[in-house]
Design goal:
CATH class of the largest domain: Alpha Beta
CATH superfamily of the largest domain: Zn peptidases
Distance between the termini: 47 Å
Strand order of the largest sheet: 1-2-4-3-5
Number of helices: 14
CATH topology of the largest domain: Aminopeptidase
Order of helices and strands: HHHEEEHEHEEEEHEEHEHHHHEHHH
Oligomer: single chain
Helix content: 40-55%
Number of domains: 2
Strand content: 15-25%
Radius of gyration: 24 Å
Number of strands: 12
Structural class: alpha/beta
Largest sheet: 5 strands, mixed
Length: 459
Amino acid sequence: MNKGSVIRYIDDISYDITGICLEIWNNPEVSGMEKASANRYKKILKSNGFEIKEIPDMEHAFIGEFGKGPPVIAVLAEYDALPGLSQKLDTKYNPVEEKGPGHGCGHNLLGAAALGAALAVKRYLEESKKEGTIRFYGCPEEETLVGKVKMIKKGAFDGCDIALSWHPMNINTAMREAFLANNSIKFRFHGISAHAAQSPESGRSALDAVELMNVGANYLREHVIQEARIHYTITNAGGAPNIVPKEAESWYYVRAPYRKDVEEITERLIKVAKGAAMMTETEVEYEILGGTYEILPNDVLFELTYRNMLEVDLPAYTDEELKFAKDIQGTLNPKLVEGEIKKFISIEDDEKLFIHREVLEKEKVEKVVMLGSSDSGDVSWIMPMNFFLTATWPLGVPAHSWQATSASGSSLGVKGMLYAAKIFTAVAYDLLNDSSLVEKAKNEFNRRTKNRKYVSPLR
């Protein structure tokens, strides 16, 4: 099989890939509950000759492996949905289940593209008799930012040479950098309960400590790098107003462009919490629930991915699909939609204003800023990894929205997913046929990590 025929194999199996994609979209499962989704992938991989390897103490994480010898190429799949983003395939807000889960981050698409690539590469390895191994990584709990971090700690990625990753979005581009590093921390304050009117002097309010900590955190924001984010919720504020709260809890996220900044800001936030406890004569304990790294750039894989995005044919859209995209856009803030169009569209073509229909020019890649966090970043710190986006949603649609859920279950989303599967396949083909690419990517990775090794955020 030549490269073109391997890529075209995605078209041959598109019905099956689309089937599992939409099945998972129709049956969304939130982080930690992805049993049926994981089992669907295991079943189809096993029926296609992949060896299934379970991850200890992680019920919904697994590896599907085919082939032998190097290079060992990992394709990363996710399948968890988001709470509260239930949505029918509609251009207006129309939940299937009020407050139910939905695929507002497109993970039904993300996993299906990885599956398509794994099946295409498996067939190529069979027919060409080449040495090489393809691994499909079923990764749960991405939305809670811990799945891959746990898998790394358990050694699930040991023996891999290269990781390939992507994400559904509203533009087509390869990425050098992405994501903010993150820490997720809960602070629990312990005080003394008392009657709030009869004997308030006997009490020590844990809620006062939470509120004072939040005030201190607000002042801390003025003295951290401007790219950092500190946000929180109060998860336990006590009980009845006439009882001095004995227990209270707040939950914080600390984000910044680089892991080292997150660690420094976290230490300062812990001092704020201790100060709040001192002022209120309460006790505080904290738990770092998890954390993630930013993506470590790899120019070798960026250039390889970008070149293949240009080589693989872009999706074509019907008039009905363009109307669907236009109608979805009509539910959004027109200024935000217009801003995104001006940022990414190079040709004033009415049809191109609804969904991105070209590969972003390389000089514009830096304009794509992803300020969320993902545990995929951690994988890039243990081996060379690429990362790219394809247009699965209309321009202007934000992730984690009902519009993204709707588009992720539409033919727009499916076409972007199949394009991603072909890019995965093309990149893997090149890596299997040019060992120097693997070595160059590894050498670059080693240079970048020479003075800074990965340390798991899970202590």
